[in-house]
Inverse folding.
């Protein structure tokens, strides 16, 4: 089809003054999860710095979270896979250890491949730069010894140095919120997802935290998805905390953007808060605390137990109950009194 310059100015390719040569074609394979897609976006800043004339393609299960600075954003589906395997690339980086992502990188034509691939039907690192990330996925004890954040790890896989490059998160919602902010607004994201139920903080603790915050004059906004709807309605009824309901992703981003600080577990809301530059009080108990890059926006709150970082999805001894609401309240007050650089 004719390009926009031909349509508007009747130029032809062989006399086009608007043509910009592409010197590198780079493909990013990062399918999911949603939060991982968001925390992979700092890599785009580095790619644009290193390869100014690059054409960047990204294939994902969450194309709506891929920034518009990417030249070609593709959903993971057959028609796009067929297109990719017939297009040559200079660099392809696969940051997923899922078999479908690794199978895709095997059939892509590229001069250089980074990250993970399939070998004899098994996921393996393509080179030594991906080997450490591969090992941390296989062995919990190796994972616990890791001192690098996820962002540092993916930069290493790509072969670049992480220098504090921030998330790229775009706000596309036009929704307005009836929020009267006479004091700092604290968002409480009460869910934890389905896979790691051990991350769940007791509902009665959320109620206590709301009461402590409201007594001290803070505004409180309850956050969550459809699965947290009944819980948040109950907390709101018992505390008079503000709760608007659950929303599509673009509106959820806008709602988090209203907050000055977000209290959350390791969820999509955590990454959205970081991407929006919000102060954050982060619950963690089952993961290695070093994997989170908070960009000096907040603090990690963990239970005082020797088994932290257990990676257990279920446990008979719920350690999150050991995190007292007063401690979380004090962390919120402290963070809100620190000026963001």
């Amino acid at each position: 089809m004719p390009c926009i310059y031909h349509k508007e100015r009747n130029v032809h390719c062989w006399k086009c003054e608007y043509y910009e040569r592409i010197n590198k074609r780079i493909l990013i394979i990062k399918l999911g999860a949603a939060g991982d897609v968001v925390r992979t976006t700092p890599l785009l800043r580095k790619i644009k710095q290193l390869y100014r004339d690059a054409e960047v393609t990204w294939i994902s299960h969450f194309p709506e979270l891929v920034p518009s600075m990417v030249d070609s954003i593709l959903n993971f589906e057959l028609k796009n896979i067929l297109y990719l395997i017939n297009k040559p690339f200079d660099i392809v980086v696969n940051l997923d250890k899922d078999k479908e992502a690794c199978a895709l990188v095997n059939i892509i034509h590229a001069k250089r491949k980074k990250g993970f691939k399939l070998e004899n039907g098994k996921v393996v690192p393509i080179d030594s730069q991906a080997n450490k990330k591969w090992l941390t996925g296989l062995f919990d004890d190796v994972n616990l010894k890791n001192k690098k954040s996820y962002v540092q790890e993916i930069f290493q896989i790509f072969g670049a140095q992480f220098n504090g490059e921030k998330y790229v998160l775009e706000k596309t919602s036009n929704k307005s919120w009836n929020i009267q902010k006479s004091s700092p607004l604290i968002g409480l994201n009460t869910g934890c997802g389905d896979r790691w139920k051990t991350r769940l903080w007791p509902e009665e603790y959320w109620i206590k935290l709301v009461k402590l915050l409201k007594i001290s004059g803070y505004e409180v906004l309850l956050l969550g998805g459809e699965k947290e709807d009944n819980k948040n309605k109950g907390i709101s009824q018992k505390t008079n905390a503000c709760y608007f309901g659950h929303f599509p992703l673009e509106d959820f981003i806008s709602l988090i953007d209203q907050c000055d600080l977000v209290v959350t577990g390791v969820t999509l809301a955590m990454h959205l808060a970081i991407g929006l530059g919000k102060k954050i009080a982060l619950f963690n108990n089952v993961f290695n605390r070093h994997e989170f890059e908070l960009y000096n926006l907040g603090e990690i709150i963990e239970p005082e137990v020797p088994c932290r970082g257990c990676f257990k999805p279920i446990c008979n001894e719920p350690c999150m109950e050991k995190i007292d609401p007063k401690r979380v309240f004090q962390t919120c007050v402290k963070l809100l009194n620190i000026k963001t650089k």
